[in-house]
Amino acid sequence: MPRIPQAKIDEIRQSVDIVDVMGQYLSLTKKGRNYVAICPFHEDTHPSLSISENKQIYMCFVCHNGGNVFTFLQNYLHISYIEAVGKVAEMGHVDMSGYDLTKRVAPVDNKLKPYYDMHEEAQKIYTYYLNTQVGIAAKDYLHDRGFDEEIIKTFGIGYAPAKNILFDAFTKLGYDTIAMENSGLVIESHQHYDRFSDRIIFPLWDEQGRVVGFSGRIYRPNQEGAKYMNSPESEIFIKGQTLYNYHNALRPAREAGFVYINEGFMDVIAMHRAKHDNCIALMGTALTNGHVRMLKRMTKKIVLCLDGDAAGQNAAMKSCDFLVKNGFEVRIILLPDGHDPDEIFKTDGKDGLDRLLRDELTPFDFLMLFESGRLDLRNYDDRSKLFDRGVEVISQMTDDKQIDDCVTKLSNLTQFSREIILNHLQNKQIEKPQEYAPVVRQIEETRMLVDKYIQAERNLLFYMLNDKEVAEQYKAKAGFMYNDVYRVVASYIVDYYRKNNVMDEANLIDRILSDRISEQKKNILVQAIVEISNIQLPLPASNQQDAIRDYIKTIGENAIELKKKQLLDQFQHVLDPKQQAAILQEINELKKETM
């Protein structure tokens, strides 16, 4: 099939609005002519990502991730450029029949590929054995617990028989024993044997849906061993970067506007049976920064649905604090003591579980309930502890009505007056460091330190992006930039104006993304264009031409200085007097140009 022509790519990009597309994945807020959002590409708690509807580009002023609609989908969904083009074509209802939309992605790191391949092979083997005579007892157990074929297929449930099926299979496939051990699927103790034996197997996936580990459950009466056995952490399975069912829950969570976080994968399966598909689970660890990055790609609202015992409530309290500090809207489901969603679904069915899920608590209400159950509120010291915790939580709030309501609740519980609470809140705000100085200002202050030549090049590029005539002036009078990246950007701009009279930054980025250059170079050039496009140069129109002439003059002076330096270096290595005289003559001519 033919390569997609540039005209078709332009048609695809123009068939959608970047605001509409990014709004499907992020919560956008209108601010002036642009839209802003919490950036999903770094640990962001304030809206630092800006989307220009006019230019059809976006940029984060902190991590500098930026580009057009294709770039966003590539970075956000971890897909290739050609896949992003196909996805936008689908959104814009552009007919792509006859064009090659084959995924073109870099292969998995050769070092990690054997581990992914072994896990994929293990998944196939476990699935096969569950559907044989050997696995009939395990399958009967699943059916008795209400796991129908749809559940078994959706969650990839399998069976590991009581023999070394994986070790034998991997040996036949040519894997060495070190790789088998490092995968976590095979154990060495005097001899090699499979980690999972006579257990029902649940695959564990990474965010892209690749199997990276397993959890095995015993199922026979009086069967020896721990109830659950999990894969150890490995180079492809890191608990702090894994959330069970993330890849399946991504779309349902975005559609629902929130995601449930459960304690274990059996809870997720129970929630699925109750028709709640926007559910994920922790992997036996506390929430990490890696989890936060994953969650920000999913939704800004989290509903914690952890176990109802003391350990579960402690985990909910810590998770709640962590998520609120990372900018999430959080709610908590208070489950009965000693119960989890799996047990509630088994005893009370979908209706019983749904009733509990409807009763969400705010972080403040959960804190008051949680802490007042642990503290003796007849005791002044304990009331003071609750007071301090309450003030801390209220100080994170921004809604006046919510603050007023929580101040009243805290006053009633602790017996401290509203005036005292409000006074402490005011002091908290005074003590609080400035969390967010406008990032644009920070960037502009940094730019003031940049060498004047680089600054002149960058500013001239800004005007070149906005005016074809400036690009022609640059080509005629300078035609050179010292900075390697800016020099290439300038050449793209000049080339773009050969066929176009008005600049379209998103279209220019298309040209770069579809060019046959390295992905690293594409990323650098796109970032440079987006940053330059967002420079603030508030010069009156009458002063712009003077500034442009100054920039071109400065760039020209720099080019002359560089040429003089090259000639002086050359002079030192030349022995022929005639050649030396010619070089000196050329240097003198260059000096005249700068006088």
Question: What would your notes on this structure say?
Answer:
Pfam families: DnaB_bind (PF10410), DNAG_N (PF08275), Toprim_2 (PF13155), Zn_ribbon_DnaG (PF01807). One of its GO terms (cellular component) is DNA-directed RNA polymerase complex. This protein has 595 residues and is of the alpha+beta class. The protein has five domains: 6-91, DNA Primase, Chain A (Alpha-Beta Complex); 113-235, DNA primase, catalytic core, N-terminal domain (DNA primase DNAg catalytic core, N-terminal domain); 241-361, Dna Topoisomerase Vi A Subunit, Chain: A, domain 2 (3-Layer(aba) Sandwich), CATH 3.40.1360; 366-431, Pheromone ER-1; 443-589, Orthogonal Bundle (DNAb Helicase, Chain A). Helices cover 54% and strands 11% of the residues. The chain is built from 26 helices and 16 strands. Strands 1-2-3-4-5 form a five-stranded antiparallel β-sheet, with helices on both faces. A five-stranded mixed β-sheet has the order 13-12-14-15-16, sandwiched between helices. The chain has a four-stranded antiparallel β-sheet with strand order 6-9-10-11, covered by helices on one side. A hairpin with a 1-residue loop joins strand 7 and strand 8. Helix 5 (113-130) crosses helix 9 (177-183) and helix 13 runs antiparallel to helix 15 (363-374). The radius of gyration is 31 Å and the shape is globular. The protein starts with 5 loop residues before the first helix and ends with a helix. Residues 433-450 have low confidence and may be disordered.
Layout of strands and helices, then pairs:
Elements: H1 6-14, H2 18-23, E1 29-31, E2 34-37, E3 49-52, E4 57-60, E5 66-67, H3 69-77, H4 81-91, H5 113-130, H6 136-144, H7 149-154, E6 158-160, H8 165-172, H9 177-183, E7 186-189, E8 191-194, E9 199-205, E10 211-217, E11 228-230, H10 246-256, E12 259-262, H11 265-273, E13 279-281, H12 289-298, E14 301-305, H13 310-325, E15 329-333, H14 341-357, E16 360-361, H15 363-374, H16 380-394, H17 400-414, H18 418-431, H19 439-447, H20 452-466, H21 468-477, H22 484-497, H23 505-513, H24 519-533, H25 541-572, H26 577-594
Parallel strand pairs: 12-13, 12-14, 14-15
Antiparallel strand pairs: 1-2, 2-3, 3-4, 4-5, 6-9, 7-8, 9-10, 10-11, 15-16
Helix pairs in contact: 1-23, 3-4, 5-9, 11-14, 13-15, 15-16, 16-17, 16-18, 20-21, 20-22, 20-25, 21-22, 21-25, 22-24, 23-24, 25-26
